[in-house]
Amino acid sequence: MKTAVETVPSYVLDAWWMPDAGAPATDARDASTGEVLARVSAEGLDLAAVVEHARTVGQEELGRLTMHGRALKLRELAGYLNGRREELYAVSAQTGATRGDSMVDIDGGIGVLFTFSSKGRRELPNSNVVVEGPVEPLSKDGSFIGEHIYTRIPGADVQVNAFNFPVWGMLEKFAPAFLAGVPTIVKPATPGMHLAAAAVRAMVDSGILPPGSLQLVAGSARDLLDQLDYRDMVSFTGSAATAALLRAHPNVSGGGVRFTAETDSLNAAILGPDAMPGTPEFEAFIRSVVTEMTVKAGQKCTAIRRAIVPDGLRGAVIDAVGARINERVVVGDPRTEGVTMGALASLEQLADVRAAVEAMLAAGGELAHGTLAAPGVPDAAGPGSGVGRGAFMSPVLLDWPDAEAAAVHTLEAFGPVCGVLGFSTHDGGASEAVRLAALGAGSLVATVCSNDPDFVREVVTGIAARHGRVLVLNREDARTSTGHGSPVPHLVHGGPGRAGGGEELGGIRSVKHHMQRTAIQGSPNMLTAVTGVWHEGADRRIAGEAEFGGVAGEVHPFRKSLAELRIGDAFASGLRPVSLEDITAFAESTGDTFYAHTDPVAAAKNPFFPGIVAHGYLLVSWAAGLFVEPAPGPVLANYGLEKLRFLTPVAAGDSIRVTLTAKEISPRVTDDYGEVRWDTVINNQNGDVVASYDVLTLVEKEDTLYKSRGRRATVPRPP
Amino acid sequence: MKTAVETVPSYVLDAWWMPDAGAPATDARDASTGEVLARVSAEGLDLAAVVEHARTVGQEELGRLTMHGRALKLRELAGYLNGRREELYAVSAQTGATRGDSMVDIDGGIGVLFTFSSKGRRELPNSNVVVEGPVEPLSKDGSFIGEHIYTRIPGADVQVNAFNFPVWGMLEKFAPAFLAGVPTIVKPATPGMHLAAAAVRAMVDSGILPPGSLQLVAGSARDLLDQLDYRDMVSFTGSAATAALLRAHPNVSGGGVRFTAETDSLNAAILGPDAMPGTPEFEAFIRSVVTEMTVKAGQKCTAIRRAIVPDGLRGAVIDAVGARINERVVVGDPRTEGVTMGALASLEQLADVRAAVEAMLAAGGELAHGTLAAPGVPDAAGPGSGVGRGAFMSPVLLDWPDAEAAAVHTLEAFGPVCGVLGFSTHDGGASEAVRLAALGAGSLVATVCSNDPDFVREVVTGIAARHGRVLVLNREDARTSTGHGSPVPHLVHGGPGRAGGGEELGGIRSVKHHMQRTAIQGSPNMLTAVTGVWHEGADRRIAGEAEFGGVAGEVHPFRKSLAELRIGDAFASGLRPVSLEDITAFAESTGDTFYAHTDPVAAAKNPFFPGIVAHGYLLVSWAAGLFVEPAPGPVLANYGLEKLRFLTPVAAGDSIRVTLTAKEISPRVTDDYGEVRWDTVINNQNGDVVASYDVLTLVEKEDTLYKSRGRRATVPRPP
Q: For residues A626 and A657, is the Cβ–Cβ distance under 8 A?
């Protein structure tokens, strides 16, 4: 008899917390041996204080950092956790996970931190106000404009997680919340709780996280929702039934709590009629189905539950899946050599899955591969397992002679179970495949496996609105694809309808789900003050030509380091006349002899030009000549151009001038230089706008010439 | 006694429908005279058939058009409705609306159609698949990539509207749904139902709308939600209590129906400590408060309910508001000359507002301006009204000596009522103003009235997360501002918490709320097939230099009209060597003598350059020379450049070449030309990418040279 079973502690108010010794608790067991590993209980925990701590200390401490500052912390944390993977693997094995499963969970979770760190620094400003979308002119004279900003929500993100990926499931929600500046309160599921707690232990040990930014409730969430209001959000992963209950909570239905859910769904994999046995697509399809049945013993909300294949290929698919399972799959204790598929999370899960399979068999499914012992009795006491106490199950493939049978589109066996359905190909098959996939009533993901672009287009656009993600598998990506069942941090995860209607990940999209989008309206000066980005029409300090606004004593902004430069610092050049000779010479030297620059008769017939006009490239090249400061200075390079539009043609005899204004200044947190975006306008002698664009430069932080020099640096790529 | 009162008909299944003569009905009355205008009833209407009609006929008919096709129809519809404004004004006056109120409602609604038509054609592709965001590389070799698309939801948008703006409230929801391709089922409120029905009558008469795209339920929504599932959405405007009820409906909480709500809120207007009496800001503030109290008799979900002002200015604000009301406001039947404020929507509304004011007086509010007769008895039988039967009320201003009194932050009088609260300015005032505004627990809009950029920045970033919109009012935009209470179609409307948590308008954002965002993953060829946009790495047909992929017989894509051009059509140039003389000559002719192009010693110290390098502008100018087709042809102009990045420096002795690929082809629906976006890559002799960018051109639809010529055309502006 075991006596030294410990209770999993909660981490709240920046300290570890344990319930009273006598508090009622649930046992967490080893999935393979049935051994009791730990007790789980949050009985007596003051959840109101937990929420208040997040809203006060957590908000304040996270708010001391900018987006980039928090992004850097995510990278540090990822590096730290990398060093503690082995101890997490050991705990993970107790949940029934193979080494491969554990890597999906643990390395996958750490990978999310790295991705968000890098995207945060590349795609978000180094501040706490994110401008979204273009400026909208709201008055003719430009004195009243509008745009949108994102700022973080003022409360907590309560993350209720499922049992299947205790680490990834936590980090994929924590990362965007943290980046947004929103404190996390995580409530993992009881099976796997000890693994989630081990990961939180490591995160706390790292010393990297600001106070209040992460709290762990290691037990029932009880009345947690009662504590929340419109400032907070709930990010739920789990069953559709629980999601519905939470959504009907008065604080969600009427109290303004933001609620997002990701529930498991009856995901489809669709095989194209072109993907006959022997093709790379057929092979990739079979491999994908078996992988999704067996990874994590099929306990994945993204697993393939419905293989939708051309009617004539049903037999071939069943045979090939069965053969691959026989060849590859060894069920047992994941700590045992040679085992490729572990246990389900618990005997309760096993019983649920078996019951679902029985129901499907009763509803028209036929057992096409695998065995099914009586519910509750393990049928595969795999190598190394405690006989009768491990939650083991063989992969089960069901054949559905009636593809419309309701059961296959509504029942889910959350384990190594998949059904095969046939569709008629008499009209090409695409519309039939779309129709069957739609019977799932909303899914997280579907795979379309075909090398026929027309079939792929028709099916993908036909099913997209019912899916959060669609993977197209063909010979070109079969080896490089990250797989049907694997959400990637760059792309959204979640789906409509049965899949819960939520959206996670998707890069910065998920950060914005933790922020409020607000329209702001005002004058250019006021929107400049609010956003820290210079807006056209706002005040500036202009150096250069007095005739065009230049003020004596103002320094050319290219002479200013990031420490000195302010948005609104500007330079105005004088006019430079353009002659026909200039245009001709430019045509000759560049080779750009387009008729609009060389042939007066043809040029005059062009609907956009009055006759021969200067090259757009001549104009921007000359503009650079007009605004450049030739001698070495803090501006290191012009690394790009954005949003260039040629608006008024320039003919021989016209003159041009340029005005350049510092619009956005982004010092890098890890380099001694940063990016400056310059609003650039070329005008002609009449003041008409000839061209407008953004010039992108790299500028040193401090005015120490050559400070950054002598080593190589890299130019930012476009987003 | 009246006998000829008609029932407002519903418009369903593309036909007008009336209930049985004996069906129970509600009376719609003239707000000023109490006269019964119409009966309202949808008793016996088969709502399941209405929803099914939208999902089948409506979806199919709208799906025949592209985004641009539907956008054009919105413009036609707006033009048609413009011609029928007068008859709508007459009906509007019966709701208690003044001519000004009616213009906000009717002209404002038509304006939304125009804006969405124009934005749809400028900001959306001419197809039914909208690509969102950048491509994400998911494998090192580029064979597996991901991105996001939007496709319309496969059901109906059920629009439940409030009584206050029957036309605008309908069209601001209809326009984005229609543009997305989603059929509308509109359920207006009973007061104002006859006006909404008159507008629908005009829309149907126009003959512009496809079958099934618009249905009107002129009566109780009864079991409408019972008919909806995950394919559908509900767009609700009304009370928070009703929104909470609908959100708790099983089809919303558990059935996947998308639900968005806009409920009225306790919007604040904050006066800055700098905005002393006599300043333009003080004057603008007073004007704004009085406008928001009296337009539509204060029955606006965006109206100012809380004037939050420096403690010391409370008296001055109360006096100035009172004086302006006395000077400007004449309450009465809006059809009577000289009336500036009409009736509330009904006697029931009047009773509600009075009761709310009584409750506020009991909770610490003090009557600072206006009179309040006993509840239920009209106090202002204005000129022309049926005495005792018009829902008239004078504007009421309340003073709140205790700014923290719960009532002012929780109770709403949905009429011409506003409270004044003071904040302490001992620490500058911003944080105190933010704290008071936050007590509203989520609002649609706030005004910040100040000319102090620091105060504005602190307050706006402090309150943004609790607001859907913030207006900054100062001397610069006081005359051009569209006003506190007016949502504009370009910017989002809606707010968190008490404001309902929803989001409407915001230009294309609201179109996307009617679509599902789906991540798609696959090879470049397959993502090209799905989106109709060429992806890097996908197949192409290359003309030009054989050494770099050119195939004999392929025509230069600049020689192809839109009718002939296909995405993936490409051109590859040969190599052109760059010499020091070229660089020097370019520096001299353009004036761009930056040291990196002219001074070998200084250039070598720059961390990005190996020594003297060619100008980026030289490279793109030469690239144009390398890819140009000089003789007249279907390509009319290069109107811009996007996403230019210089990635590898080019030194003397290097050579460059360019490859150009048709990436996106967008024929205009109204012109005989369209836009073509060309993926452009400059490589050096080693194959390194020197620069990458998009070249934007205008190309004729048909290969009829000079067809478009001889008339002026306009270049598209950047979004």
A: yes
